[in-house]
Structure formats: structure tokens, C-alpha cells
Amino acid sequence: METTKGETRRGKDETKDEALPDFSGLPREIITDVFLRLPAKSVGRFRCVSKPYCSMLSDPGFAKRHLALALKKDSGCQKLVVPSRNLHSVDLDSIGDGCEGTMVLSGVKDHPKDGLESVSVDWVEMIGSSNGLVCVYSQKGSSNGFVCVYSPKGGAFLHNPTTGESKRIPESMLDIVHACRHFGFGFDTLTEDYKVLKFVASDEGYRSVDVYSLKTDSWKRISGLPYKRLGCNPGVHFNGAINWVVKLHKGHNPKRVVVAAFDLKTEKFRDIPCPDEVEDCKYLKAATLKGRLCLVYDSFDKHDDIWVMNEYGLESSWTKIRLSMSYRSMTPLWSAKNSEEVLLQLDGKFVLYNFECKTCRNLEFSNVTFRKMFVASTYEESLISPNSYGNA
């Protein structure tokens, strides 16, 4: 059958869209393998080359393979993310150069596209990060750092700072969220699902927790918890669980201060006793230090020590480490490769502390205004999308 010129031109264009651009006749498998080895940021730029490239490089399966390879080879780009009225990120490799004195950092401004750029928010807070996704919430209205009331314009988000994609998390079973820092965020390797936890406060303490699943885009409630009090910080994702320091109601455990570890696979809590020496401390939080769970103070009094658990879950493996400096509130954030230097968020500032030499140097931001109480975090650049993950 004879075709018109318009039909011929349209057929050629469709063929061009379906095929990847020719790189010296390389097969598609080799082209894909090359992209799998590129940094996530670079791969993101190639999405703009053509529709076939955008389709291939946006595929959830490709994103998972890209992340797995980067984690296996430890070749990904790690970044520090600091919340203020927006998110500010800094390449962590740029601060571990061993120079002396104060280093001035310039953070790159970033924010979730789904909602935060179109409304005026009072502040952005970090909940946590996993596989390149950061979980944040925006505050509207008055807040003293401990209580947050969500407005229709505020809310919680899953956000990929590398790709700019975001997903607003639906409200949980309570419209008013008390003790908003009692959140946690992590990745369930069994079901390959991202989960957000939120403790529910009541007159009896914290007897329930709401669990959000990205795959189902819904919340469910787990009740019957024995917890009386929690600290004022999000849970830390470590060893397949989200960990908080909590105080138990009387009669549940001879040691009333424990690490409450929520197993993301079984969705059950396990209580890990804290050292006897911290039983009377009201302000303590869980963190991680060089691949180990640790306990650090978060109080008005000054301390010069931290506790490290050398074998996760084993009470007898708690070890005290004495520091050469005092602090009121401190969180280990990142460890430099092949170095004893650790990035610490210390009393509202950032320092690089050397555990071998017991020396430290200050880090300052040139373009970020911090609030008095904030939670920083780190993330690995990835192509994981919060919008398509459940359908992968």
C-alpha cells in the first residue's frame, strides 16, 4: 500500500524514539552497563538526551541495580544534608582533606518539589535517610522543637535530593502530631519497602506506634507498647531496625532505660538494656559511630563520654569512650574513609573530631541559618524514586 510523505516521516520519527542513540554500534547491554557505573547525578542528566534514554534510566529496576553496584563498590557520592527553611547539601568528600583551622562550607539549596516550594513553611526537619531517599517534614504554625501541629500546607515527605523527586506522605491516624521528633525512617530488605514510624503519645506514655508503608501508601497501628518516655530525637536506622532510647513503665524490665529496636522485617520491638551508668540520665539518644550503635547525651549538663555497642544486641559489649572535649548534645554523622576523623554535630555546630589524636576542627556554613535545635543527616546519591518504587 502506498504511503504519504507525512506517514513516512512519522514512521521514521517513531523508530528513532524507540531506539537508543548509536554509540559506535555498541549493544544496549553495554550502554546500560556503562550507565550503571556512572554517578547518579550524571545518569540523571542523560535522561534529557531522548525519550528512550529517559525511559531506560528512569526504570525502577535500573535504579535498584545502580544503587546496589554503588554500595557494593563503595563508589557512591555521600552528602551531608542540613535542614533550615530549605534543605542544604554538601559533598562529604570535600571536607575530609585533613586541613587545619576552620573550614567554611557552602551548601547547595534544595527542597522537595511536591508542595514545599509552593507554600511558605516555618521550617524543614529531618526524620532520616535510606538508599538516597530522605524523609522530612515541614512545620507550619508555632513550635517549640518538641510539639508540631501539621497544617494542610505542612506535612511529611519522601524526597530524593539527587533527582528532585518527592512524595507527600498521607496523614496518619492522628491529625495533630504530638512529639513530632518521635519519628523513624528505614528500608525493609525483606519486602523491599520503605517505612516511616511515628510514636503516638497518650496520657500513659507511648503505647502505640503508627507504621507507614511506601508500597501500600498507607498507615497501620501497632499497640500494646510498654514505653513511658522517649527522647527528643528521631530514631536511628541501624542493623535492619529503627532504634530509640526509651524509659519503660515499672514492672516491665529491671533496667528501665533501654534501646527500643523496631525490626523493620517482623515489625516487632526488641528492648536492649542500656549500661547501668546511664540509668539516671533523662536525655540520651541512639546514634551510629563507625558502623556501631552508640549512645550519646542530649542534655543541659556537659559530658565528655559516649557509649559504643561493639556487638549489636549484646548488653555486655557496651564500652565507654572518653573524649577530649565536653558537650551537651552530640550526634556522630559520618566517618571519613581510611581515617579516624568523624563528623559530629556538636551543640548546634559541626566539627571533625579525630578519635586517634583527640583533636577537632570546626566546620562553618556560609549561607545557612540554623535554628537552635535541628537534626542533620547524611545520604547516598541514588536514582530511587519515591513515586514509582511501589510499582517496581
Task: Describe, in plain words, how this protein is organized in 3D.
The chain has 392 residues and is mainly beta. The chain has 2 domains: 5-72, no CATH class; 77-391, Neuraminidase (6 Propeller), CATH 2.120.10.80. The protein is 13% helix and 43% strand. It contains 5 helices and 23 strands. Strand 20 (341-346) and strand 21 (349-354) form a beta hairpin. Residues 23-62 form the F-box domain. Residues 132-357 form the F-box associated beta-propeller type domain.
Kindly provide the name of the CATH class of the largest domain. Answer: Mainly Beta
Name of the CATH homologous superfamily of the largest domain: Kelch-type beta propeller
Number of separate structural domains: 2
Q: Please, what is the oligomeric state?
A: single chain
Cα-atom Rg, whole angstroms?
23 Å
Instruction: State the total count of DSSP E strands.
Output: 23
- Judging from the principal axes of the Cα atoms, what is the shape? globular
> N-to-C terminal Cα separation, in Å?
42 Å
CATH A-level architecture of the largest domain: 6 Propeller
Helix proportion: 10-25%
Q: Low-confidence segments, ≥5 residues, pLDDT <50? A: 1-17, 115-120, 141-152, 175-180
Pfam family, one: FBA_3
Protein name: F-box domain-containing protein
Concise synopsis of the structure shown:
The chain has helices at residues 5-18, 28-36, 40-46, 51-57, 60-73; strands at 78-83, 87-91, 103-105, 108-110, 123-130, 133-139, 155-159, 166-169, 183-188, 193-202, 205-213, 218-230, 236-238, 241-248, 257-263, 268-273, 284-289, 292-309, 318-335, 341-346, 349-354, 359-365, 377-380.
